[in-house]
Amino acid sequence: MSKKPRILVAECMQEISSFNPLQSEYANFHIEHGAQMLVQKGINTGLGGALAVFDEVGFEPVLTISARAGSAGLLSRPGWNRLMGEVMEAIAAEAGSGIAGVYFSMHGAMGADGELDPEGYLLAEIRKLVGPDVPIVISLDLHGILTERMLRQIDGLAIYHTYPHVDFASTGARAARVLHRLVTDKRVKPTIARVTIPALVRGDELITKTGCYGSLVREARRLELEGTAMSAGIMIGNPFTDVPELCCQVIVATDNDADLAQAEAVRLAQEFWPLRHRMQGKFSSLERAIAQARSIPGPVIFTDAADATSSGATGDSNLILRGLQQAGYTKKVLAQIVDADAAAAAHQAGVGATVQLTLGGGIDPARFTPMPVTARVQLLSDGRARLETMKIGLDAGPTAVLTWDNVTVVVFSKTLSLFDRAMYFANGLDPRDFDLIVVKSPHTEHHMYEAWADCNFNVDVPGATSANLPTLGHTICARPIYPLDADVAFAPRATVYSR
Ligand SMILES: [Zn+2]
């Protein structure tokens, strides 16, 4: 009986916003070692999708470590050193034992104090351990920043093709199939063409189902499905991750056909470039949004993309709540905010108590000032839930529902992803019962809000993840870059990576 090929499996995922003043730490990461990683089996994650394929094709996964963190500020230097040490130790323990291939599940938008390309570092270290001949295949979020250093280490990749992201598992599965091909047919010679585009993009046109970005991604997907490319994708980077190689980029990988890979990558980049103007946020001022909301009979959404925790913001913005209060808005408001002190005070006081406290402004005091409120504690919870689509666990720490006048606010102790309704449902609240719902995410899946709301206002307020990109203050990414600079020129040129 022949032995199954052994595939080293690892995961390290975080997306950071350089404009969040609070650095993230080792404690932000949820870490699973070895067989603990099997909890992702059957779940809609990259690892879940890859493990299913490894089962199907008869590969033996050698599970090393999974480290996943929600989006947050730059990872601190001690946080990175400890995380990197633990990840590399777990991988090194298995890397010598007859490994046929490596699958690494990544996001691509990590950043650490002192190491602005953590994924590149990890891949370079893994390459040293496994040697030049073992194929390394990664999966990436389309918001990741795929760097030169990463490209020099990998043999294959798969990139998300949907935004809002729903294809986590299928992306992992695509990466696993690339790896299967490389492990079982040594004649395959991956040839990856990369065209970088000096642009940062944001806004509704990035929604792949409906936006112009989606029609380009479908071209990339077609190249994969038809077999023209082993992998193809259009990465837009996370515009809040201010690192040297932040940009948009087209990636096309073929089997030993550099001309084809380059031609397709250049073509897609050429198609992308004139659309950069459309792929920007379109905003309402807060005053205008409130005034219009009053005149709309049905429910409205106030999208606070600037405080999108899933993109790395703090979650402690109270600017919309303040604006509504100042404007004397009287219809029923539902909102969320991160404020550990307020949550603790509510837990101390108990359900039914009236508390005087401040909300927000505790993490990003340069942008937000604490808002004094007198509120009733309506409900207390442990802040645990599961994401609606991915079913991954959420932990907001001690959580409280506070109410005053026409306002209901869910107060969390910890910053966590708020791109669906999970934390509303988990705290006994249905957004449909309200007239104005604040959503701290640039986009949500259609059925969650837009299917039943009368209007979705993209409110232009400050925050660490504002879609008003020139307001953020990038200092590290290569310049010039649209829309931070005027008159940016672009002549698409492909660089080919082949190991
Ligand atoms: Zn993403």
Structure, explained:
With 499 residues, this protein is α/β, with parallel strands linked by helices. The chain has two domains: 6-278 and 493-498, Response regulator (Rossmann fold, 3-Layer(aba) Sandwich); 286-458, no CATH class. It has eleven helices and 22 strands. The chain has helices at residues 46-57, 77-95, 118-130, 148-153, 168-184, 212-225, 258-272, 286-294, 319-326, 340-349, 422-425; strands at residues 6-13, 16-17, 29-33, 60-69, 72-73, 99-106, 136-140, 156-159, 190-197, 231-235, 248-255, 300-303, 333-338, 354-359, 371-381, 384-386, 393-395, 399-404, 407-412, 436-439, 455-458, 495-498. The strands form five sheets. Strands 14-15-18-19-13-20-12-21 form an eight-stranded mixed sheet. Strands 3-4-1-6-7-8 form a six-stranded mixed sheet, with helices on both faces. It has a four-stranded antiparallel sheet with strand order 10-11-9-22, sandwiched between helices. Helix 2 packs parallel to helix 3. The chain is globular and about 70 Å long. Residues 141, 143, 165 line the site of zinc ion (ZN). Residues 141, 143, 165 line the site of zinc ion.
Helix-strand makeup class: alpha/beta
- CATH architecture descriptor of the largest domain: 3-Layer(aba) Sandwich
CATH class of the largest domain: Alpha Beta
Query: Which sequence of strands runs across the widest sheet?
Result: 14-15-18-19-13-20-12-21
| Straight-line distance between termini | 32 Å
What binds here, in terms of ligands, is: zinc ion
CATH topology of the largest domain: Rossmann fold
Strand content: 15-25%
DSSP helix count?
A: 11
Helix content: 25-40%
Outline: globular
Main sheet summary = 8 strands, mixed
Query: What are the low-pLDDT stretches, counting only 5+ consecutive residues below 50?
Result: none
Number of strands: 22
Number of folding domains?
2
Average pLDDT rating: 96
As a whole number of angstroms, the C-alpha radius of gyration is 23 Å
CATH superfamily of the largest domain: Response regulator
